[in-house]
Amino acid sequence: MRISLFKKELDDIISERVYVFAFFVQFVIVLGIVYAALLYTSVAAPETSSFVQVQRPKIGIVGNDADLLSKLSENLDIVFISGEEPFNEISNQDLVAAVVIKSNSEFEVYLDNTKLLSGFAETVIDSALSDRGAELRKEALEKKMETADIVLSPIIINEFNVGEEGDQDRPPEFIMIMYGLLIPFILLLPTFLATNMVTDSIVGEKERKTYEILIISPVTKRMIILSKIGPPLAVAIIQSLLWILIFIYKDIPVHNILFLMILLLIINVIFIGFGVLISAFSDTLKESNLTVTIAILVTSIMMFAPIGMKSVLQELNPISTITKLASNPVVQSRTLFPLIPLALIAVLIMILGEISLKKIETLRL
Question: What ranges in the chain are assigned the alpha helix state H?
């Protein structure tokens, strides 16, 4: 009977078209995010990308400056254009930007912000012009003193990256955005869906008036609750593991998979526990779905938005722990510490949800 209940809930999930569609949407979102990240990598560090065709933005140049052109051509394709109407040249030759060289220290930059790679081109151009500015400052200072290094570089910093060889070659911006935002967001997508699955299953029993059948069945109420949360939990964990495998396949290393899966299991139990709690006080699917949406929105803002928190609360933020585990091949004991209080929170929420369901007379599951 216990296995039958579990199988019934799993069959309901598989047969429900909206869940299949939601999974497909997640799959498209994950592939889109991964592709966008690799596209950026292919532009910023072409030698590290093997799965996305290298994209080199094309810019127009008016004038001649060998040193500047040499720096720009490392990441951009150069086209010489006339300087009369740079904007028209950008449009006619499908350029993302144009640079007019007026002198050794004066430049005009035109950008087409409607182009996807214009932001990267702007970064490259700004970097090259900043280097020119540093060279001019150094020349001016050295005319007045023996060396300008003490003014321009008063301290010396040697940076050493900890990680695999492929990780060290990736642009810092890519690592920060991918591991600090995109990977946590993607791995939590199944969690949000699982919360909806649980509330739909429990509140659906309320609306269909079928809870009496479950009550008189020869299984405990706890086992009925476990049969409701088990399939969504399993589906969420499998999906998260699938997303991790997609990252690895696309040459985006994800470290400490075992600890990550344990953490995701705890987070899923917390959110599903909230789903059970919400179901206890909801009489219709419309009411429960609205409550779940608000709850997910609030928790997402708390986890992802840069809101100031006390250090203790920040340590318990699952996003911080996911980032540390996924990005760092070395696991420190302090990194794993949040798993303990989060696990206790998960147990308490599940107990509270079970008690609430048993107490509310409209649904005894």
Answer: 2-15, 17-44, 66-72, 86-92, 118-142, 149-152, 165-169, 172-177, 183-208, 211-216, 221-249, 257-280, 285-304, 311-316, 318-327, 333-336, 339-359
